[in-house]
Amino acid sequence: MPDTHDTASALHYRVEIADLHAHLFRVTLTIAQPQALQTVTLPVWIPGSYLVREFAKNLQHLRARQGRRTLAVVQQDKQRWQVACKTGQPLVLDYEVYANDPSVRTACLDAARGFFNGTSLCLRVEGQAEQPCTLEVVAPEAPENTPDLIAASAHWQCATGLFPLKIDANGFGTYQAADYDELVDCPVEMGPFWSATFTAAGVPHRLVVAGAAPSFDAQRLLADTQKICETAMRFWHGKGKPPFKNYLFLLHATHDGYGGLEHRNSTALICTRADLPRLGSARASEGYTTLLGLISHEYFHTWNVKRLRPAEFARYDYAQENYTQLLWFFEGFTSYYDDLLLRRAGLIDDTTYLQLLTKTLHQVLQAPGRQVQTVAQASFDAWVKFYRQDENTPNATISYYTKGALVALCLDLALRREGQTTLDDVMRALWQHCAGGPMQEADLRAVLQTCAGRAFDAELQAWVHSTAELPVAELLAAQGITLQADTPQPAQRLGLRVTENGAIRIKTVLRGGLAERAGMAAGDEWLGIDVQGQGWRLGKLADLALYAGNASHVTALIARGDRLLRLPLALTPPATKPRKSAAPAAHSDTVSLRITDAARVGRWLYST
Fold first, then answer.
1. What is the CB neighbour count within 10 angstroms for residue 502?
2. What is the pLDDT of residue 502?
3. Burial class (CB in 10 A: 0-12, 13-18, 19+), 81
4. What's the pTM?
5. Left (φ > 0), alpha (ψ -120 to 50) or beta: where does 173 sit?
6. Does the pLDDT at position 582 exceed 80?
7. Partners of residue 114 on adjacent β-strands
8. What's the CA dihedral at 560, 565, 568, 571 to 10 degrees?
9. CB-based contacts of 546: which residues, under 8 Å, 6+ apart?
10. Which SS3 state, helix, strand or coil, does residue 182 take?
11. In angstroms, rounded to a whole number, what is the distance separating the alpha carbons of residues 226 and 408?
12. 324 class by beta-carbon count within 10 Å (0-12 exposed, 13-18 middle, 19+ buried)
């Protein structure tokens, strides 16, 4: 195949389908001015997803040539290669990438769809990462023996946030990037998909949806997404202009999936088909509300983490972990505002918003790890803990998403109680203070002092850098909302997380709970109970109350591997001294929220 590249570009990447059914992309990289000993690397992680994923494991058949001469490629380590070549003559590298991960983080290719992030496909040319580059995406040819239910290649389209240089009516062709960072920060979607456009604050936006069912109400999703974007624009800039010229939503609907990954002027999203709005259905489902929250979250990231970002992320190091203690701010504060902006956009009501807030409270209160790990430590440990969860994760860690959201809630309500400013004002002032760029925690502290008229160092120390309980109940009460403890569900009362499918399989035993005191362990199958000499089979945890009756102690019948165990289980916790906390502290607690002053709640929920 002939080498084709834009002569004005220092680097040209050509991406085509090598084998659709084998999930193989072919990439040809042309380096116009190579070094004598040219090094190329492939990232080990993708910004926004803090885990070393070793993308090089999917790269194969890497070859190099100059003109007709084949050159040796010497691998230096797990993701680095070197080629000795002549200077002043283009160096051409070609290779294949296996792509069979349907997540938003890597790459996927089959007869129905293609998707990739540049971090999975595009080698980084050392010494030239700041050079302009072009990406050519080649339209697929019709595969042989393609089933009728799979769309033919003629129906495939291409979409990306990169600037188009020369593309056809379906979006295939050549795109331009200012440098490597921009190249890999614009994912590419290929395949048969629905798309439409709208304008928010004068900026063109495009919504692409792949894999939707025939019942999909496209116009409703388009209108609701526009409301989210307009609300976020007003939040950050009032009537001003955002820091991007266009924006692209790439949404993939699957049988079972959820997730999103933010980019500088686009986002890649996954949802379950059933969560898309349906034609003829006026009421929003819980799943659709969750999808709108995901859209709001990733769009808010366009400002908060892609531009206003940790100082440690000023320049990404794609070869190793990039540590920061600030994910509680960038993910947590974004998690606070995603649902709040849905309320301000009129897409949910007060009751639904408080239900979503209650869910966040439960996720924090029912995690014993909040008493072990600070939310700043959780941010730093994301690389080895948050993305590598196991049965002990709730006991040892706290999510910087959920607790970070509650830190934002507490900070916002504390500022509103004092009457000088709000967190909305602080976020906008921080954007100006940091010029929409890298920031440190010291910048947040300085802006808080300026906006509030006093330092908030003590609050940040207690809420972010210690494991002290957050004063959620006290601050909500001051805003006109009462937090009250409710009767816990059986799993929460026992301190368990289980799966129930005709049998009870224990996934997690929470620290300090009744199940841990009895000696239960993750992986156990809870078969039944013995109550005063009578044995009863349990199919679900709700059966426990039925068969235990008023008994305060039972014997749990447990299968652990090839052993059967009898474990003494107390059904009521031992008496303990009450804890001094503004909110329920034990992981078995459940809470509910009730509005007591609608006017004060309104000033919080509706205003920016």
1. 6
2. 87
3. buried
4. 0.94
5. left
6. no
7. 109, 190
8. 40
9. none
10. helix
11. 25
12. buried
